[in-house]
Amino acid sequence: MNTAQHLQSTTTLHNGIHMPWFGLGVFKVEEGQELIDAVKQAIKHGYRSIDTAAIYGNEAGVGQAIAEALQENGLKREDLFITSKVWNADLGYEETLAAFDTTMNKLGLEVLDLYLIHWPKAGKYKGAWKAMEELYASGRIRAIGVSNFQIHHLQDLMQDAQVKPMVNQVEYHPRLTQEELKAFCEQHGIQLEAWSPLMQGELLDNPVLTEIASSKGKSVAQIILRWDLQNGVVTIPKSTKAHRIIENADIFDFELSAEEMQRISSLNDNVRVGPDPDNFDF
Q1: Which domains, ranges and CATH numbers included, belong to the chain?
Q2: Of 266, 253, 274, whose CA–CA distance to 197 is shortest?
Q3: What is the pTM of this model?
Q4: Residue 3: predicted pLDDT
Q5: Residues involved in catalysis
Q6: What confidence score (pLDDT) does residue 186 get?
Q7: 220/226 Cα distance (integer angstroms)
Q8: H/E/C letters for each residue in 173-233?
């Protein structure tokens, strides 16, 4: 199913926009030189997708890193795919329009590649979606989507939406495979994207994964990230260490067999490291 042959391979969203299969996430990376260096290292080593969010408090640093990396690596703005997200406190039509302007000012960008509703806050996300549809129609955003939406949230949103979400970014790893949600998204042409693909490190000593990693001469992290891609799921592992950023992306020189894929998927026990989207009310 997966067509990711190299680090810059892309999936085509339902509106024709090309999104890299693989990128760098910057969740919980504070503003400062460590953040700037991480983003620049990723771009230098071939990453083309960077994922941030208003609530991460690091959009300005990401913007600075992007500007410096473009200049240093001879790249054009359109070579990169930048994602940000609107936070719960800013959901609502007017609030989302204002939040988007703030995000763009911090990032220093004219156009955002992907803008997501961060969480499905009840009664709030439809107004935000209307604002995002307008921003999309105006060309200020190339693709719009959601994050942490379950099937019933997607169904509710799509009842009134003029534009169907292009992406749903959710917690996704071998212990939380969300098969029904994944199938629903595939049925509706919504690209699934994984956050916390390594379960914040909790999977790295799993015996099944360790055994497969050993047989492939790869790290457990590389096995999990490869499993994501072969499942047709975009993935954005976070790291600030240059060697880890490089290692995470070194997953295009091997394949997992159908049996190995199944063994990894069978680790699912519906365990989350993040909040439950149905009970998250910040």
Answers
A1: 10-268 (3.20.20.100)
A2: 274
A3: 0.97
A4: 66
A5: 56
A6: 98
A7: 10
A8: ECCECCHHHHHHHHHCCCEEEEECCCHHHCCCCCHHHHHHHHHHCCCHHHHHHHHHHHCCC
